[in-house]
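#struct-help
A.M.: can someone run this one for me? Single chain, 354 residues.
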Amino acid sequence: LSESIIGTMSPLFSSVVFSDIDGTLVHYLKHMKVSGSVVEVHPSNFSYVPGSSSAEDRADGGQMAPLEPSSQPPSAVEAAAGSETSYREETSGAVPLEALPPSSTGLVGYVPASLKDDVNALKDSCGARFVLVSGARWPTVRGRADALPRAEAYVSEGGGRIFYRNEDNEWTEDLQWRRVHGSDDEAQDPPVLREPLRQLAAQLREHGVTIDDKSYETMFRVPNGIDQWPVDLPPGVSVTTNLGHTDVSLETAGKGNATRYLMEQFGVPRSAACCLCDDDNDLPMMREVGIAFVVQCTSESVAALCRESASSSTNTSNDGRICCVAMPEGGPAGTVAAVASAKRWLASAAVGAS
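D.P.: on it. C-alpha cells below:
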C-alpha cells in the first residue's frame, strides 16, 4: 500500500472484516423467495420477514405479509448484547430494506436499512477495517459504493482488482496488486480481458457458450453456469461458482489471494480477521480468516462446511480447516445477524489478545 493510503487509516485499527456483496449484503427478491422468505414491497417501504426453511416453503416462496413496526429486529448493537459464549445472534421479525440503484443488467438489489449504521458500529467498537469483496466488475462495485457501508478497500472481479477511496472520494487502484498478475500498466478504459482468459473466452463463444466479459480484466462470467467444458482449461486459470453463475479468473486473482494480500498489507493476523459470505466463490476467502459468518448457504459445499464446523470444537480456522457459522435466518435478516456476530467475535478476539 502506498504511504498516502496508509496515512488515511486510523492507527486504532487492529482487525478486519471482509464481506462479499451479492447474496451476503445485497439480496434479490428471486433469491429471497427461493429460500422461503416472506417479502412485501411498497413504493417506499421494503420489508423482509424470515420464512420457514421447509422444502414446501422453498418451493412456493412463502406468502406475503405486512411490515409491522413492532416486529422490527434489534439493531446489531442491541443484538450483540447476548451471551458471552455465543458469537451468533438470532434475528426475528421484519427487517426494513432499502433498494439499491439497478445494476448494469437492470437487476435491483436490497440491503437492510440499518446496514451502514450496523457496520459503522462494528468498526467503531472493534477498531476494525471493513473490506468489500465482490465478483462484480469494477464499474458496478464503484456505482454501488455510496449505497453500501464505506470500506477501507474495495475488491472487484472476484479478487482481481483492489481499489482505495480517500477522504476526498478519489479512487486509487493498487498497482502493486496489478503487478502480481503480471501487469505494470494501469488498466485501460474500458478494461480489456487479459490472456489466457481472452483466448479461452473466444474458444467458448465458438462452441456457443454465452460469455459476459464486458469491463472485466482478470475474470469473465458464464451466466447460469456451465455443466460441461467444451475445451480444456489453460494453465493459470481457476473456476468458481457464484449464485448459479460460473466465474473464470486468473489463478493469481481470486478472493483468497486478495484477502491474504490485504491482511499482510494491513498487518492483521488470521486471529483478528473474519468474513461475511454465502457461496462457493467465497471458500478461498473463508480459508484465510479466523472465522466465516455465513449469511445464507447458497451452495451445498458451504452448507456441508457449516455442518462440519458446527460439530467441531475448533472456534478458529487453522491447518486448512475452515471455521464457519451459518445464520439460520438467511436473507437480509442473516446479514443483520452476521454483522452482529462478527462484532462479538472481534470483541472476544481483542480480549484474548490483550
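A.M.: thanks! Residues 1-13, 52-91 have pLDDT under 50 and may be disordered.
D.P.: also worth noting: The chain is about 30% helix and 20% strand.
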